[in-house]
Amino acid sequence: MNEDFLHYVWKYKVFSKVNFKTTSHEDLMIVRPGLHNKNTGPDFLSAHLKIENQTWIGNVEIHLKSSDWYVHNHEVDLNYDAVILHVVWEDDVAIYMENNKPLPTFVLKDVVDVRVVANYQRLFFKAQSWIPCQDSISTVDLFTFSNWKERLYFERLENKSKEIEGLLQKENNNFEAVLFQLLVKNFGLKVNGDAFLRLSQSVDFSVFKSVRNNENKIAALLFGQAGFLEGAVEEVYYHQLQKEYAYLKHKYGLQTIANNQFSFFRMRPTNFPTIRIAQLVSLFYKYQSLFSQLITLQTVQEFYDFFSLETHFFWKTHYSFTSISKSARKSITKSFVDLLIINTIVPMKFLYQKARGEHIDSSFLKILKEMSPEKNNIISKFAALKISANNALDTQSLLELKKNYCTPKRCLECAIGRVILNKY
Question: What is the pLDDT of residue 155?
């Protein structure tokens, strides 16, 4: 048993009775349980109670034992002078107010169904399990699950947006500049994401804007800043970029980042940093107003069409500057576009609408529902528990559920956990 459970019982009135009495045998009516206070001070603020025939508006403090009042030194803390009710699981000592009258006390142990307590103990105190409710999650009704998944997705979207908000602050709310940084980062995937972000931040966005109407200059800038133009390679295209970069480096006072930050180890050739940079070059050259064009797209197919582009012909027969390979298109796959939509485009559009004070529409949900479900270990484990994912909205919601509710055992704040707790 812990106080979080008692907070849950009080907040949602999970009682097995309707008529209550204090430990002094006074009639108690809970008009409003109050606002849950997660900061310092009493647990619930501005509660509305009726004790006997007197209406009270004040604070409620909750403890496992009434003696915890003294353990926590509340008797000398002015913040607790406005407490009108002490809610406890077990009443083991009387608590007195300043006027030497006993503080009204309400014992929860007498009014909570034993089956709710048993459900709580199964969730929180059973042997090690992947998620606390793994034996019962599949019994939760679809209506609850569907509504909760949408809420979970928007929580995940808010969390993803926090990193972007930091970048926007640094760039004076220049959404175009931040989109440039995030796209470059996400083209690096997990292995090279940080190195690609450093690449995007190694040059001022104004410099990039000055060259983006010339494909060779974009390529020279990105490959040069990444340190891929410092060797001696007998390729005409390489020499063109090397010469162009030398000019840009001198003109703008650029500093190359070390190319040993980029990993090729155990990577498929299509994910080589050189190929991903080549794709970025084609993308930035093809769309001169990338941000304004991207945020107008409404369907997944529009995104797939948007990212359907050709790299420079050099890359058809190369995966790096130094070796020739069999001719092949180095196109951006649909699964890669899905990652860009989830991790960059939708969060950027979400923040853009917020910044402009626009209504946050449901187009985000529509787009994710059109996308195929992601495949990873967490989604597979949910599937084993008979929780299927039909689209990317489902998988994003389940990832948020596992990370921020199941793992930290926030079952009492979870719609699924609350349903399971109240099952009889």
Answer: 96
